Structure formats: C-alpha cells, structure tokens
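Continuing from the previous page...

OK, I double-checked the sequence for Protein kinase domain-containing protein against my notes and this is the correct one:
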Amino acid sequence: MSTGIGNLVLGDSTTSSQQSFTVIKKLGYGSFSSVFLCDWHGDLSPEVLPGLTSHIRGGADQPGVRLVAVKTLRRKWEQSLHECEDLKELKALRAITPHPCVVHFYDVFLASEMSELSFVFEAMEGNLIHFMKSRKRRPLATGLVAHMFQQMASGLHHIHSSGYFHRDMKPENILITTTGIFNYRSLFSQSQPDAVEQKDVSVICKIADFDLAREISSTPPYTEYVSARWYRAPEVLLLSRDYSMPVDLWALGTIIAELVNLRPIFPGSGQIDQINRIVNVLGDPADHGVDEHGRPRGGGPWPRGLEQARRVAFIFPEAEPRNLYAMFDNQTPRRLVECISDLLKYDPVLRITSQQCLVHNYLRECLPENLPCMLPEPELHAQQSSIPQDSHAVSESPN
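Thanks. Re-ran it with the corrected sequence; updated structure tokens here:
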C-alpha cells in the first residue's frame, strides 16, 4: 500500500503546515489505534537519531527513506487540533523530553479530511515479545540482559523524573532494534579477568506507548484496569485506585524475569488466578525470615494489602515463598535474582525505585564493557552519589 496524505494540521508549529508520508506496512492495531511504518516526506525535528533507521528491516535497502511509525487513533475529532489538547497521551508525550531509552516523539497532526489524530514516532525494529520469540528458547547472554535492564531502568527513571508514571509496562511496549553482534563477558565479577566471552546481539531498548501515562502529581482515583494482567502489580489486582510509580517497578521485575527465562513468571488466566500465581512464588504477604544470603524471603509483609484484600472479600492463602534462585538457570547471576526480588515486593513502599535500579549491586558487578553507559555522565554521577550503597534500603516511600 502506498498512500500520500497531505492537508495536515500540525500540533507544534515546528514543521511545515503541509506534510505527507507513504505508508509501507501496518505494524499493529488495537481497540483504539493502528500503527503504520511509513516513509516520511516532510521535516523531522533535530533530535532524530542519525543512522538508526538503517537498522530497521526494509530501510537499509531503500536509500533516502526516512522511516517513522505513525500511530493513528480510531476516535474521530470533529473540529481542530485544539480540541485534542487535553488528551492525556499528548500531554505526556510533550512533557517527557527526548531520552535515549524512550521512543522519540516527532510530531502530531490531525488529518482534516478524515478527522483522525496521529502521532509520529521514530521507527524501531520490533518489540520485546518479537525479540523473545525470535530466540527460540536460546538464553540471552548475561551481559545482554544487564544492558537491556539498564536501558529499561534508565527510560523509566527519565519518565518518573519528568513527573509521569507509565502504568502499562509490558514487553509489547518495550521497542527494540538490534544493531549488530557483541562479545559479552559471561561472568559478573571483576576479580575474574579471564571470563569466557559470549557472542550475542547488541540491542537498543526504548519504552513506548504513553496512552495510559499519568502525572505523578495528579489526584487519584485511577482505574484499576491498567497494564496487561501478567505484569499488573498486586495493589492494582486488589482493585486499589490509589497507586503510583511503584506499579511500573513491579512490571519491570516481571519483564526482566521473563527475559531471563523466556517465559512469563506470573501467567495468570484471570484476576484471582493472577494473585494466586504470585502467592505461589512469593508466598503470602508476611514475614518469612531470611534466606541463606541474609535477604528477606518472598514478597515481604504488606499490612495495607491485607486490608485491601478484606475489602474485596479476598483471603490470601497461607503459603511459603519458593526459592527464587532455583527458578532461574544456575548461570544466572545471583545479584540479578536479588534485583528481581527487590522489584517484586508486595508493599509498594518496599520496592526499589527506578533510580535505585541504576545503582543496584547487580549493575555494579557487571563488567564495564558489558554495560555501555546510556545516561549523560553528570546525571549518572548524581544518581550514584545520592543512593545508599545498600540498594535495598529505601529511606522513603517511592509514592
């Protein structure tokens, strides 16, 4: 399909009032929008990352093609773009400044002949679901997992620092582009310089899809039906309508666990089954003592959660937590399992923050050549100086 669309009313006055693009193929669709891969013919903002589109399939063999992803909403807008100004997704996209780990937002326009609002983003190769399926059960190099985790945590930290929380973190919303082959070091200890190298792909990760994003300063109640069920935090599963950034961190923990095992950690078939699957792994929300490394076992106590459960007539079954280390391959670094455990806490107050993820002992132990820095140096140094060395220690609520 090849269709040029003009007569567009732009949303930010940074580009020409006449834009056109050629649709190459449909990338995906949902209940409220469709996404197309397009060749963009108009101006793009100066923040376009040079050379990225050369890594997108279908772009390298088309000289001069500038690939973008155009997301078109199904809702019809009867008047002008001014009518769309209060759209929460548009507000979030404008408020969150460009960052290497967040998909770049180029433009917004209203096609006057169809009254359809569209957003223009940088094009990526696929999403994390596509990537994991392409592995065909072949585990990722340990250094690659670390690099991808750092990028997701960096993107989340930028979103949170911009005053928003995502609310829909899931593999489909982590866009990826592979950029070549890299020799990763398989061991996570600087005391072993002769570590075996693992050859694997190099991956760029970016967080996308902000239609459910909300301002951290906004006032609840929020809807309890956010994010895909497998990545939904316990407080949301118990129909809380007062939640914040920690729901993103719970989701990050489930995503990283899935990336390591290449299968979901909590694949519930319904709301109650989802909670029960969490309990089967983390135990009930109580104090279950410490493991052989002196760390708290399971998901930890959660008095407020027990009260929430009573309000919706749910009783947590009594259950001991599983050995989380045994749920992963014996080549999985212990610190990575501990990081996942730090994210999968019942009580939102006890979950580590996106900022603490970036200085977690897991990343501190990675060999530097496995972990290209994705943050500007001053920002990274500021984070390292502001977080306690014991990265479990949460001095205040992330809410």
